[in-house]
């Protein structure tokens, strides 16, 4: 049997922008992506701490160390600049393998989204 488990999580990061006129996705600072073991194009779930909204989209790589967390396209209607969100990606593993798997979890500084 295979199950889905949390593969990666960026916990409590601040939204820096919402661009309704973009084609869709979430732009994430490249340093945060690497720390969380996420890649461009990967499907992610977004949980908005401020309003309870949940959505799925895919990642676009942002500039390294920019702190950029921008929701693009229709997702921009679900967040506001300054909202705190959690970004989660999942992986599919064999049930026995999943028992010992450890996800990459990142806790950035909420003020500037840095890793320090």
- Helical stretch count? 2
Looking at the overall shape, the CATH architecture is: Beta Barrel
* Main β-sheet description: 8 strands, mixed
Query: Can you tell me the CATH topology?
Result: Barwin-like endoglucanases
Give the terminus-to-terminus CA distance: 39 Å
Binding site for substrate: 57, 73-75
EC number: 4.1.1.11
Pfam families: Asp_decarbox (PF02261)
Enzyme class: lyase
Structure at a glance:
This protein has 116 residues and is mainly β. It contains 2 helices and 8 strands; from the N terminus they run E-E-E-H-E-E-E-E-H-E.
What does this structure look like?
This protein has 116 residues and is mainly beta. The chain has one domain: Barwin-like endoglucanases. It contains 2 helices and 8 strands, in the order E-E-E-H-E-E-E-E-H-E. The longest helix is centred in the N-terminal third of the chain and has 6 residues. It is globular and about 40 Å long. The model has no long low-confidence stretch (mean pLDDT 96).
């Amino acid at each position: 049997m295979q199950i889905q488990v949390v593969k990666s999580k960026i916990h409590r990061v601040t939204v820096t922008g919402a661009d309704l006129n973009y084609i869709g996705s979430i732009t994430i600072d490249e340093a945060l992506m690497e720390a969380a073991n996420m890649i461009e194009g990967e499907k992610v779930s977004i949980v908005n701490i401020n309003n309870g909204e949940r959505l799925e989209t895919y990642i676009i790589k942002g500039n390294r160390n920019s702190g950029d967390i921008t929701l693009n396209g229709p997702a921009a209607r679900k967040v506001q600049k300054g909202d705190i969100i959690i970004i989660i990606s999942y992986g599919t593993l064999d049930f026995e393998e999943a028992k010992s798997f450890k996800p990459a979890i990142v806790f950035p500084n909420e003020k500037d989204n840095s890793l320090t």
